[in-house]
Structure formats: C-alpha cells, structure tokens
Amino acid sequence: TQLPSELRWLYLNNNQFSGTVDLTQLPSDLSWLDLNNNSFSGALDLTRLPSPLYTFYLNNNQFSGTVDLTQLPSPLQYLKLAFNQFSGPVNLTRLPSELPFLRLDSNHFNGSVDLTWLPSQLSVLQIDSNHFTGTVDLTRLPSPLYVLDLNNNS
Q1: How far is it, in rounded angstroms, from Cα 91 to Cα 123?
Q2: I need a labelling partner for 92 at 20 to 30 A (CA). Which of 29, 65, 137, 147 fits?
Q3: Distance between CA atoms of 17 and 20, rounded to whole angstroms?
Q4: Highest taxon of the source (predicted)?
C-alpha cells in the first residue's frame, strides 16, 4: 500500500504491528515518524530517509542489523532507536549538526565509541546497555549536554 504523498506526520505507535518496514517508501515530505512500541522487525536503511524528517521514533520494537547514522537528514532533532536488537559499531562523528536528542540504549551495539565530534547542540545522549568497549574521551563534549548515559556497557 502506497502512503499518500501529502502525508507529513505518521503515528503508528503503541500497537501490536509486526513485519518489516521499508523506509525508502516513505513520502518525501514526511517530517514526523513514530513507530514506538510495536513488534516491527528486520534491518533498516537509514541512508535514504525523507529530507525534512524532524522526529524519528523506533523505540521498543525488534529491529536488527547495523545502522548507518552518517547520512541522516539535516533537520533531524529527535532520534530514538532504543530497545531493539541493533548491533555492530556506531559512528557518532557524522550526525546532523543540530541534533539535540539521541537514544541508542538497550541494543547490541559494540566496538569503541567516539564522543569527540558530537553535534554542537546535543543535549541528550543515551548509549547505555549496549556492548561498547574501550576508553571514552570526555574532554570535548558539547556544552548543552545535560544527559550522558554510558552505563551498563562492556
């Protein structure tokens, strides 16, 4: 089923929807997508999201695979990928420059995490309850940052 091209906000949260999601089929002018609290699964391609996307909530599903955060839409303000089954390394050095809110907690992300090139407006970063390892440089954090949650990693 094709979504209407005029659609700007799509709320499918708090249902029991399941199956995979093809993000490449979203309307090109979509600015708000909320899929929280469902049973969606499968891998996601985050490299071709609608360019005006401002809010993107995927918490509490069963999405899996790796995620590429290097080509997110520049207007993006809220990205929540928490409580899924995502895995692999995560590049936080090429996030949208104005992104203030990022939740990647409670997944299976691993590898080292570079916090030296975070967006200058970032105020919330939750990457707890994953499998990140290594040393973390906390000397170049953005000044608006008021929540930094790294607990329960390797």
Answers
A1: 18
A2: 29
A3: 10
A4: Eukaryota
